[in-house]
Specification:
- This protein has 285 residues and is of the alpha/beta class.
- It has 2 domains: 131 residues, Leucine Dehydrogenase, chain A, domain 1 (Rossmann fold), CATH 3.40.50; 141 residues, 3-Layer(aba) Sandwich (Rossmann fold), CATH 3.40.50.720.
- It is 36% helix and 20% strand.
- It is built from 9 helices and 12 strands.
- β7, α5 and β8 form a beta-alpha-beta unit.
- The longest helix is centred in the C-terminal third of the chain and has 16 residues.
- Bound molecules: 2'-monophosphoadenosine-5'-diphosphate.
- 2'-monophosphoadenosine-5'-diphosphate binds next to α5.
């Protein structure tokens, strides 16, 4: 990669940030497309976050991805929020236009694009179970509800959080019935078309195996997991064992990256090339 006097800088704020595969994915695409950009990881402590946002303006950094633990707190320091990001209550992308910082959430549409393009799944009229009611769950639910599914059942360990999210979303989007439950989903699986895990359960290094029992799902149901490390999570393996269709988390990672890339550069990257680099970087020692 050649850095020039004109190279535009983008990157990621997070803590930890060492595990991120976004630098590989973006830099490979910049290089392949001949774009004079570089993507840099920045480890940002909570107490330094406001200073780091000022630095984006001061250093004319073109844009930033934002990850754990800053996706929500950083919103207060920006000049403007995309409507959907405001609704979700979290951002993962900042665009700097002449010193004005606007926040976006590309996780939501990234998940939707991955699901529709890879699985050919059209949420309209379908019955969907979303496991989890945290930040990632909110992004997925808000993405799905705009496509008018018949039902979204939000299942969460802390049931009150599921109830609060179901009431919030159901109050705004009347064409979908929102239901809340704990993690015992037996009653809801029978006519389910899509079940998606948005919790961290199944992630490498985390405790626990399956977040819910998926026995009883119809044979043509899709089981989707937004966890991408490992590529085959316990939930994905169990779904394959049951002969169900599976949708892995790497797709969302790649599609959210592609949307951020386009917001910064105005150019669409190749999804296949991004996916190839992502897999390669995960296999690297
Ligand atoms: P994120 O932004 O990644 O979604 P979060 O807002 O902290 O993170 O939300 C984490 C989600 O994973 C929540 O739905 C959480 O359930 P609770 O609301 O009950 O905390 C869920 N979660 C985390 N660990 C879990 C576990 N071991 N079993 C079941 N659900 C878990």
């Amino acid at each position: 990669m050649k850095i020039t006097g004109r190279t535009k800088v983008v990157g990621i704020f997070g803590d930890p940030v060492e595990h991120s595969i976004s630098p590989y994915v973006h830099n490979a695409s910049f290089e392949a497309m001949g774009l004079d950009y570089v993507y840099v990881p920045f480890r940002v402590k909570r107490e330094m976050l406001s200073h780091c946002v000022v630095a984006i303006r001061a250093l004319h950094i073109r844009g930033m991805n934002v990850t754990i633990p800053h996706k929500e707190t950083i919103m207060a320091f920006l000049d403007e929020l995309d409507e959907e990001a405001e609704e979700i209550g979290a951002i993962n992308t900042i665009v700097n236009t002449e010193g004005r910082l606007k926040g976006y959430n590309t996780d939501s549409l990234g998940y939707l694009n991955s699901l529709t393009e890879e699985m050919g799944f059209e949420p309209s009229g379908k019955n969907i179970i979303v496991i989890g009611a945290g930040g990632a769950g909110r992004a997925v639910v808000y993405g799905l509800v705009k496509r008018r599914p018949r039902n979204i059942t939000i299942a969460n360990r802390t049931c009150e959080r599921a109830v609060a999210l179901a009431e919030e979303v159901g109050g705004k989007y009347r064409s979908t019935r929102l239901v809340a439950t704990g993690l015992d989903i037996k009653e809801h699986v029978r006519d389910c078309h899509l079940l998606v895990n948005t919790t961290s359960v199944g992630m490498q290094g985390a405790k626990g195996g399956l977040v819910v029992s998926i026995d009883g799902l119809p044979r043509d149901a899709i089981v989707s997991d937004i966890v991408y490390r490992p590529l085959d999570t316990p939930l994905i393996k169990e779904a394959e064992r049951l002969g169900l269709r599976v949708h892995r988390g790497l797709g969302m990672l790649v599609h959210q990256a592609a949307l951020s890339f386009e917001l910064w550069t105005g150019k669409k990257p190749s999804i296949d090339a991004m996916r190839f680099t992502a897999v390669q970087s995960m296999e690297a020692p």
